[in-house]
Amino acid sequence: MSTIRLTTAQALVRYLAALRIELDDGTVVPYVGGVFSIFGHGNVAGLGEALWAERATLPTHRAHNEQGMAHAAIAYAKANFRQRIMAVTTSIGPGATNLVTAAALAHVNRLPVLLLPGDVFASRVPDPVLQQVEDFHQGDITANESLRAVTRYFDRIMRPEQILNALPRAIQVMTDPALCGPVCLALPQDVQAQAFDCPTRFLEPDVLRLRRPPADANELQRASELLKTAKRPLIIAGGGVLYSQAGPALRAFAQYHGVPVAETQAGKSSLPWDHALNAGALGVTGSPAANALAQKADLVLAVGTRLQDFSTGSHTLFSQATLLSLNVQGFDAAKWGSASLVADARVGLAQLTAASTDWQADAAWTASASALAGQWRDRVTQLTTAQPEGVLPYDAEVIGAVRDSAADSAGGDVVVCAAGTLPAELHKLWRAGEPGNYHVEYGFSCMGYEIAGALGVKMARPRQEVVVMVGDGSYMMMNSEIATSVMLGQKLIIVVLDNRGYGCIHRLQRASGGACFNNMLDDCLPQEGGAASTINFAAHAASMGAQAVHVADVRALKAAMVKARAASQTQVIVIDTTAERTTGDGGCWWEVAIPEISERAEVNAAHVRYVSEKQNQRL
Question: What is the rounded distance in angstroms from the CA atom of residue 507 to the CA atom of residue 287?
């Protein structure tokens, strides 16, 4: 057996640099697009030296925040429909624990990322080292234990030879369509630097090809039989449609059988926004067309969705319908008493069509769905083209200005968002013309994902404009990757909507009967010697190297967007907005537990409504 003397870190990095994946069109590309790193004493000597040696084939990118760079890596994978990844490496203490939130985000959203945190010495000779977490009862506990609960695969490399098995296993998990998610290989700093005789065949990994499992024959027969009983079917398109790149198969199925389509947050852009059967967003943040159809459907075919409560209206929205779930992951396919069809979304839709060629939805249902969808598209135009005078704009008007600032406003930009009111408005109102042009992280709804995530999207899709829409609250959570985008030459357009606080939760607080408390900045009473919060977001962004401006109104925003599109470096545009107005069209109930007992009459009234709505839940 041929071998070469390498350190653990060198073997790991060379393997990642050599790894290739065959895409659907037959092209072969590097599987790992690069490594984000913030070096510390736990990774700079071992892994850092190995990354330097391979920098020409596996680029290393410095970031400013560990959570932020992990968000960027995750967004890169999402923008590539899970076919390519980035790795992330940190030191052993706060660098590692800063990965936990991002790992949870990837775990919830079924997105791959390779986490390579440093770890304490395997020898334990110098213990306790700087940043080491010591446990009084378990000697093998380190800070990296915090990542076990939020990763699909976790391993600690205690000897160099273990990398030969652990790394391919980690890659297998990330490329398995059912298991896909974050993986972690914890790397003790002494083991990183230890050498071993590495088999040369390890450094020549096979080309990866993603699996597309077909449906079980019995499940397929049952699913076909259920479809044939339906007169008023509705398809829910989830993120699995995009990850499987099943958009054409979805379109063919919907058109052939006359079935309207509603999109989840993760599944939005599965169909072009102007397709006749695209009824728009579903659920709490949904359109009136999609939600009306969901309430009348006799069968719901859920494709590639994990049926999150925002999509199901906390399981009240289509509780009357038979539920058929096509999903590559059996855990998701079996939720809420669904009839399961475990398969790849693209393959499964094709199999369903072949097994149900003589079935069509009721023609009146299809016609009604198309009419509702058309009416909603017209309404979106109305909502997003208003230019109010003398009042602060709200999100819909900002969305319209951003969209219409493009020469082609049919959906060529990629919009990135994550939390607050904006995902609700974007889910309803953004026009996505191509798969992946709607990039909103709403599985974990993680404030702070927006700017860092957009960096990863831009790295994955350099030829598209990547537009970040972010509230002032999320901007304050994490903004340091503005500087990274400037440093890496990855231009972003960031639109900051300043409504002076956490407007979304402020409205939820009031709807739950609560008092205005601790959400809007004006409701946060300063301590003695404190002062009201005043933040110049444009000046702040400019200090990190972006070109930034504060605009007075929607018209000025549109003009600033035109200039931003012509620019070559990251742009930040700030506009004052109101937290009091939102789009009233659409939506449905969402379960938020209301206190049974309160001194406030408003809370007691909200609890009565809460108990009433719970009667409609699917159990």
Answer: 19
